[in-house]
Amino acid sequence: MAVLTLYFLYFLHWNADTSTSVYHAFSSLCYFTPILGATIADSWLGRFKTIVYLSLVYVLGHVIKSLGALPILGGQMVHTVLSLIGLSLIALGTGGIKPCVAAFGGDQFEEKHAEERSRYFSVFYLAINAGSLISTFITPMLRGDVQCFGEDCYALAFGVPGLLMVIALVVFLMGSKIYRKPPPEGNIATQVVKCIRFAISNRFKNRSGDLPKQQHWLDWAAEKYPKQLIMDVKALTRILFLYIPLPMFWALLDQQGSRWTLQATRMNGNLGSFVLQPDQMQVLNPFLVLIFIPLFDLVIYRLISKCGIKFSSLRKMAVGMILACLAFAVAAVVEIKINEMAPPQPGPQEIFLQVLNLADDEVKVTVLGDENNSLLVESIKSFQKMPRYSKLHLKTKSQDFHFNLKYHNLSVYTKHSVEERNWYSLIIRESGKSISSMMVTGTTAVRFVNTLHKEVNISLGADISLSVGEDYGVSHYPYKDFSLNLGLLDFGAAYLFVIANRTNQGPQAWKMEDIPANKMSVAWQLPQYALVTAGEVMFSVTGLEFSYSQAPSSMKSVLQAAWLLTVAVGNIIVLVVAQFGGLVQWAEFILFSCLLLVVCLIFSIMGYYYVPLKPEDIQGPADKQIPHTQGNMINLETKKTRL
């Protein structure tokens, strides 16, 4: 999923907030559609067929998404439309797969094998993260190490998972004959809604008190709906009430693929013998899940049990929330350190200025204020620049600065307009026997200045080219072909390349680092990933098994979908904060950490009063056994009977 954020940023050229918002909107859609998939499975097709049919929709979405990532296929609008169509189909296919796969696996176990079923959910989550580990590591390699039409190969990064999904579907179908396939039990979701609506309306119709008071508000539906359905709905509503605080956990967990990936782009990925891509940091999460699941199941939980502590499912989930809070507190500290090591940004009524001398001799530069007072005096040798940007203060939001340039015996005066909060480079160049200057704004990642007398066409790839002419003009006679060695470019740095022919060896590129790369290693993200992954194992794996074990037999998929729906709401929370929060990044991390801490307290209080259902309480009449009856003469044993 992290590759999707980079795709939005660098292929579709969206800004960071838009990329984050669309990323979480897509994630939300992936967790809203399981309601539709669960309804189809429980009411119409059954879980097995729903998995098969909507897997095909999922594969189709990947095909369209890959086509939308081909640079040669149309322009920006075509890429955007195909990408959104592909993502919508992927979300729809995901809706059929997510709620049904976990429940379908649970269907293979009888109730007497509850311990084995619990272990299955751990293995199931382990398998998911093993796949995630492989894809998170391989996908950035497919994107960055393979070139498609001279660019990062996003088409391959999106296409390979679709192909692997086809293979997985074939393997799944090969075991069709050995699966237990419970048939659909009617339109359960509709029955649940109608039952709740009738109970509420019937309760308000009989407010007079003439009728006896019911033990539970759903008992008001007893005159129209069967007792078993009412019992199932009671179980369902109790669990759904417990789900209300859960979205906040997912709001934090799913930021690994958006905010944390963007944080990694501002850090140094050079780990010595290996350079880590920002989206490859995501490999830590599934890798640590593979380690933590057996560690928690086989070591930590057993040690806690031997200490006589009753570590229930709800307590595990609460501890998982606390660990996620700590993870975001650590992320905030890392963000503050990145800001401290990053170059300062110009504030209100401020600019940053550097001077670059491309003349053949030393130039003395004096920046004059409105009252002809000297704001900056610097002597710069030929083909040198100021060692660092200088901060200049403005009297208004925009202002004219006067420059006095002394070159040989000449004194040249020039004027340039500037605006607050910008970076500027004053480039001094030869103009016959005199000199002139031009002002360039911005700090793009790579910038070229051409000192040659002819236009230079620069090709950075098969489809990436630009022309740089003298004085940024256009020449009809391009310079002959030549190659430039730009050297290693670091993440987060901004470079200025001056193309010059100062020797007899032909044109060369003079590289200057406008803004240095961030020196803080991306390895400092490891603690926050370890904490949030430990929280995920305690919260997500436990919650998945808890949802299945507490669900009535007719509503396994529906409750799995409701569990996934909490993930969707969590992503919406991130989307809203990203669009309307307006906070600096470290403050946003602290906000999420504090919100989850409050939610954890509320969840703990709710969990304290929750009484887990026993297996015999959630079985249907067909699953219950009449107890053995012993007398002086006979011992009757009755078999399962549908009444």
From TrEMBL:
Main location: membrane
Bilayer topology: Multi-pass membrane protein
Transmembrane segments: 20-40, 52-74, 80-101, 122-142, 154-174, 235-253, 283-304, 316-334, 561-583, 589-611
GO biological process, one term: innate immune response
GO molecular function: dipeptide transmembrane transporter activity; symporter activity
Domain of life of the native organism: Eukaryota
Gene Ontology annotations for the cellular component aspect, listed alphabetically: apical plasma membrane; phagocytic vesicle membrane
Cross-referenced SUPFAM superfamilies: alpha/beta knot, MFS general substrate transporter
Catalytic activity: L-alanyl-L-alanine(out) + 2 H(+)(out) = L-alanyl-L-alanine(in) + 2 H(+)(in); carnosine(out) + 2 H(+)(out) = carnosine(in) + 2 H(+)(in); glycyl-L-glutamate(out) + 3 H(+)(out) = glycyl-L-glutamate(in) + 3 H(+)(in); an L-amino acid tripeptide(out) + 2 H(+)(out) = an L-amino acid tripeptide(in) + 2 H(+)(in)
CDD domains: MFS_SLC15A2
Keywords carried by this UniProt record: Cell membrane, Cytoplasmic vesicle, Glycoprotein, Immunity, Innate immunity, Membrane, Peptide transport, Phosphoprotein, Protein transport, Symport, Transmembrane, Transmembrane helix, Transport
Subcellular location: Apical cell membrane; Cytoplasmic vesicle, Phagosome membrane; Membrane
Quaternary context: Interacts (via extracellular domain region) with trypsin.
Family, per entry: Belongs to the major facilitator superfamily. Proton-dependent oligopeptide transporter (POT/PTR) (TC 2.A.17) family.
Function: Proton-coupled amino-acid transporter that transports oligopeptides of 2 to 4 amino acids with a preference for dipeptides. Transports neutral and anionic dipeptides with a proton to peptide stoichiometry of 2:1 or 3:1. In kidney, involved in the absorption of circulating di- and tripeptides from the glomerular filtrate. Can also transport beta-lactam antibiotics, such as the aminocephalosporin cefadroxil, and other antiviral and anticancer drugs. Transports the dipeptide-like aminopeptidase inhibitor bestatin. Also able to transport carnosine.
Protein name: Solute carrier family 15 member 2
Upper classification of the organism: Eukaryota, Metazoa, Chordata, Craniata, Vertebrata
Gene: SLC15A2
